[in-house]
Write a structure and sequence with these properties.
The complex is a heterodimer of chains A (631) and B (357). With 631 residues, chain A is of the alpha/beta class. Chain A has 21 helices and 25 strands. In chain A, strand 24, helix 20 and strand 25 form a beta-alpha-beta unit. In chain A, helix 10 crosses helix 11. Chain A is globular. Chain A starts with 13 loop residues before the first strand and ends with a helix. Chain B starts with 46 loop residues before the first helix and ends with a strand. The relative contact order of chain B is 0.12. Chain B contains eleven helices and twelve strands. Chain B is α/β, with parallel strands linked by helices and 357 residues long. Helix content of chain B is 28%, strand content 18%. In chain B, the strands form two sheets. In chain B, strands 2-1-3-4-6-5-11-7 form an eight-stranded mixed β-sheet, sandwiched between helices. Chain B has a three-stranded antiparallel β-sheet with strand order 8-9-10. Chain B has a domain of 218 residues: Rossmann fold, CATH 3.40.50.970. Classes of the chains: A alpha/beta (631), B alpha/beta (357). Chains A and B meet through helix 1, strand 9, helix 10, helix 12 and helix 13 of A and strand 2, helix 2, helix 4, helix 10 and helix 11 of B. Strand 19 of chain A pairs parallel with strand 2 of chain B.
Chain lengths: 631, 357
């Protein structure tokens, strides 16, 4: 390996230091943009920058080449500062074809850089992208507003691979490695992670390994030697809390949180799921960890997935299933049964754009009210939300603890953005995780007429949870079911007063969760002009907005709700310290209804339904406007 | 033509021979398996006989009561678990196989029984039924077929015959019925049998065999709904017609019925009834039943749809193949042997890491 030729910083070029940068790779679905982006992410993590990513791809696997709807993008924001969003505006766009330029130009900041694969700007592609007879390569306006770099990515890749004996298709597909090499050079990123990854991936295909390594280095060297690029950028490591870090995606983090919960509780994890975007990845992740005793079950449908989870939980396992919007709809009846039978389990909903099939690969937060109210009858259950890719670990772990402690199904809300996004993650140590105690019923719990009896619905005084009695335990034989239960005995009961009593009891039991919820944490000012209340994946954009609002001289704070139901008991007090209350959500206003219902305050909504996360600037504008309006 | 010896009674349970003493009397009797709940089926319902048979069989199976789990869906039959003093779950409509799969796959030590009906298993739960059979989860599925929706007060079901007049089909049903046995065979069930509520001896015998079978055992039980579909199966269960209208299959034995006066032979792929007394065909021409033959069981299962053929009862098909939970355990064991038991901290660090001090 010619490592000596791969110095990260090129001495002959001027080096400019940046505190942050946002790069967007865009091309056809088949151009390997997700791979390019994730490899750039790995290199960036390796360079110890803080980072946040936004993979954004179409629902079609290989949409027709060259079309705008087939464009796949991967946006990455990194810096030496605290990075919490994938970036409001793009500093560098790498466009592999005209459609990628067309779709993403509006995201690039004025004066930003654009690398164009000029070989793809031919009449057929231009027409497909909707440019008609005009060619953006000849667009002077474009060159006036942006720094455009014409790079013959396809041709140079072809030349580089002459003599490798590879067919044309394979050669063409390698051009993303050229683009990766070039951008890695441009931002002084290390090549090693990509080299290692390629060596591992193509270990058994030496011809492909050599070709990819060669093209990757060619791209890197091209940056060094060409006169087109006179500046190379450097981004210093971020000041993160001390610890051991790795880059992590939300889905990986969710999976690890579940493995940790199983490990710390000594409960066997039974994970059941039907493939659905974007939750399937969780099934892929967990099915790899068989040596943790994890049983993964790919069910025949969404209903079977919740059914198997219920069966496993009845058997004393940690039952978990994950799905996305339409799948949660199908699981509704099963979740209702779990509420009635009071069995612990976690249902993860990786939300996507809806209704119906909606936008399978785009993000949204529009299933909150479904999670809250989407069951027949009065069927309350705890709802938690995960706020960042790394936080998914802790949210999954906590959801499992709540489910088992309170003997209830729990819905954990994630979304496409948090699940697919990446960030640097300080790896927790198993010994630092919260305790996860488990107690199964071992013997009869009541004497009835002098006879020892097991009452499956006798309650724990603190939590109101009923006992968890595993089949196989002598003397505890009992029957569960969906019919209304008589208090304590669990026998079928149609008694009117018992039904009302049990309805209240099930609600009270869920409200008891608040006794275990830590105090609300406020980011920014703890009193003042405006409090921004968010939940789930909006945390990064909200906190970035708070920093900017405070720079503008406003006294601004933010609360990101981990517990959506029940709400933390001290939230009401916190609200009172602020004049205005803004609730940004990627839906038409769902959390705000729950808040208004509970607190009767004039909350202000900020809603976005574009399948994209908030930009920090959108939240800043809404918050500043709200404060200004009243001054 | 020589007279044939009288047809033998249906096979006795394994280990029992005529005239020999039965298995040692179990210490716990059937009452130990009856819960304290009042049974709420309609008086005269076929479900009572099935419940009594299961409660009578249980002590003989030598399984611990605490290891037995009955799981049901929704419908009259699905009240069954409430009446068994074992672990149990009365779940939601059609989904019992899913709960049973999750339970058995994660707790192979348990003895899991699914109780379902024709609407529950074949209509709303059809998808789960075929998949549990395909996977071969080791459990018993008791399908109480009464060819009607009872709990919702008398609509036609997926096993009701064409032309059936019910509340929801006042001019006759126009949808052809499922043949549950053929369906189960088509779904790769490893054990398929049929019995009836009014022949409790045969019922118990079949259930015992099903319990012995390792894998998904599918048992269709013809069950009389005396309120909405009374007498649906009387031609197969009542004395006057039973002998002529039914055939009890026995592995390795010729297919004879009507007290040994009639046989079933194959003409190509088509089964045909012949009269032994007519002199054209002898017992040699009768099909020798082979319960391990997927082809033969398929042909014989279809006899129940032909009015000119006797209705088959007994074990139609049985094959040994690995169970789902066994393969799942083996996979976990193999991976664990290869990689060693999982260590959480190692897993959390299993990526490119860097340290910030």
């Amino acid at each position: 390996m010619e490592d000596d030729s791969l110095n990260i910083v090129t001495e002959t070029k001027s080096v400019k230091s940046l505190s942050e940068a946002t790069v967007l790779f865009a091309g056809d679905s088949g151009d390997g943009m997700q791979l390019t982006g994730s490899q750039f992410t790995l290199a960036t993590a390796f360079a110890q920058n803080d980072l946040a990513t936004l993979p954004d791809f179409p629902a079609e696997i290989r949409a027709p080449a060259g079309t705008t709807y087939g464009v796949s993008g991967y946006q990455l924001h990194f810096g030496s500062i605290n990075v919490r969003t994938p970036g409001d505006e793009v500093d560098l766009l790498v466009a592999m074809n005209p459609a990628a330029l067309k779709v993403n130009l509006s995201r690039v900041r004025l004066g930003g850089a654009i690398i164009l694969n000029v070989n793809a700007f031919k009449s057929h592609n231009l027409k497909l992208a909707g440019y008609g007879e005009t060619n953006p390569l000849e667009d002077e306006e474009l060159r006036k507003n942006y720094r455009v770099f014409d790079v013959e990515l396809s041709r140079m890749t072809e030349e580089a691979l002459k003599g490798f004996g590879l067919d044309k298709k394979v050669v063409d597909r390698s051009k993303n490695m050229f683009a990766l090499g070039l951008t890695l050079w441009l931002y002084s990123r290390p090549l090693k992670p990509a080299l290692d990854w390629l060596s591992h991936k193509f270990a058994s295909r030496p011809e492909l390994l050599n070709a990819n390594l060669h093209v990757l280095k060619k791209g890197f060297h091209y940056g060094e030697t060409t006169e087109d690029f006179i500046v190379q950028y450097r981004v210093s490591p971020a000041q993160l809390e001390p610890g051991i870090y790795r880059a992590i995606r939300g889905v990986e983090s969710l999976a690890l949180g579940l493995v940790a919960a199983s490990h710390q509780s000594s409960l066997d994890l039974f994970y059941s799921s039907y493939p659905i975007t974007p939750a399937s990845e969780l099934l892929h992740q967990l099915s790899r960890h068989k040596n943790f005793g994890i049983k993964t079950f790919q069910a025949e449908d969404e209903i079977a997935a919740i059914g198997a989870t219920i069966g496993a939980s009845f058997g004393g396992n940690l039952g978990v299933c994950a799905t996305s919007g339409p799948g949660l709809t199908l699981k509704t009846e099963g979740i209702g049964l779990a509420v009635m039978m009071e069995l612990p389990m976690v249902i993860i909903n990786v939300q996507r754009g809806g209704p119906s099939t909606g936008l399978p690969t785009k993000t949204e937060q529009s299933d909150l009210l479904q999670a809250m109210y989407g069951r027949n009858g009065e069927a309350p259950l705890p709802i938690l939300a995960a706020s960042t890719p790394g936080d998914c670990f802790h949210a999954a772990y906590e959801a499992c603890r709540v489910a088992v402690r309170h003997m209830t199904p729990v819905i954990l809300l994630a979304d496409g953005y948090v699940a697919n996004g990446s960030e640097p993650w300080r790896i927790p140590s198993a010994k630092d995780l919260d305790d996860f105690p488990i107690s199964f019923a071992r013997k009869p719990n009541q004497a009835v007429d002098g006879k020892k009896t097991f009452l499956p619905y006798l309650r724990d005084e603190a939590t109101l949870a009923r006992p968890w009695a595993k089949p196989g335990t002598p003397e505890l034989e009992h029957r569960l079911g969906g019919l209304e239960k008589q208090h304590e005995t669990g026998e079928v009961s149609y008694d009117p007063e018992n039904h009302e009593f049990m309805t209240d009891l099930r609600a009270d039991k869920v409200m008891r969760v608040t006794r275990f919820v830590p105090p609300v944490e406020i980011y920014g000012d703890s009193e003042g002009d405006i409090l921004i209340i968010g939940w789930g994946s909006t945390e990064g954009a909200i906190r970035t907005a708070i920093d900017r609002l405070r720079d503008l001289g406003l006294k601004a704070g933010a609360v990101q709700l981990r517990y959506i139901h029940p709400l933390p008991s001290d939230l009401g007090g916190v609200l009172g310290y602020f004049e205005h209350h803004l609730v940004p959500e990627l839906n038409k206003g769902q959390m705000i209804r729950i808040l208004r219902d509970r607190f009767l305050l004039p909350f202000v909504a900020l809603n976005k339904m574009q399948g994209q996360p908030f930009k920090a600037s959108e939240i800043v504008d809404a918050a500043a406007y709200q404060c200004k309006k009243h001054h | 033509m020589p007279k044939l010896p009288p047809v033998k009674k249906p096979a006795l349970p394994p280990g029992r021979r005529p005239g020999k003493p039965g298995p040692p009397k179990a210490r716990i009797d059937r009452k130990a398996f009856a819960s304290d709940q009042d049974v709420r089926w309609c008086p005269g319902c076929g479900d009572y006989a099935i419940l009594a048979s299961v409660q009578r069989l249980m002590p003989q199976l030598e399984v611990k009561r605490e290891n037995v789990v009955f799981i049901s869906g929704i419908g009259c039959s699905s009240r069954f678990p409430y009446y068994m003093n074992t672990y149990g779950m009365h779940s939601i409509h059609g989904r019992a196989p899913t709960m049973a799969t999750g339970l058995k796959a994660s707790r192979p030590d348990l003895d899991v029984w699914v109780v379902t009906g024709d609407g529950d298993a074949l209509s709303i739960g059809g998808n789960h039924l075929i998949h549990v059979l395909r996977r071969n989860v080791n459990l018993q599925i008791l399908l109480f077929n009464n060819q009607i929706y009872g709990l919702t007060k008398g609509q036609y079901s997926p096993t009701s015959e064409i032309g059936k007049v019910t509340k929801s089909s006042p001019f006759g049903s126009i949808a052809p019925p499922f043949n549950p046995l053929s369906l189960a065979l088509g779904a790769s069930a490893s054990f398929v049998a049929r019995t009836a509520d009014r022949d409790t001896k045969h019922l118990i015998q079949i259930l015992r065999r099903a319990h012995t079978h390792r894998g998904s055992a599918f048992i269709e039980i013809y069950q009389n709904c005396n309120i909405y579909n009374d007498g649906a199966f009387f031609e197969f269960t009542e004395k006057a017609t039973k002998a002529d209208r039914t055939i009890y299959l026995e592995h390795g034995k010729p297919m004879l019925f009507a007290k040994g006066t009639k046989g079933v032979r194959l003409d190509g792929f088509k089964p045909i009834v012949f009269d032994l007394d007519a002199g054209h065909f002898s017992v040699e021409d009768a099909i020798v039943y082979d319960e391990n033959s997927l082809e033969l069981s398929g042909i014989v299962s279809r006899m129940s749809q032909r009015p000119d053929m006797p209705c088959p009862f007994g074990v139609l098909f049985s094959e040994e193949r690995p169970t789902y939970e066994q393969l799942l355990q083996e996979q976990i064991a193999t991976v664990t042997a290869k990689r060693g038991p999982g260590d959480l901290d190692t897993l959390l660090h299993a990526a490119d890491t860097w340290t910030i001090s």
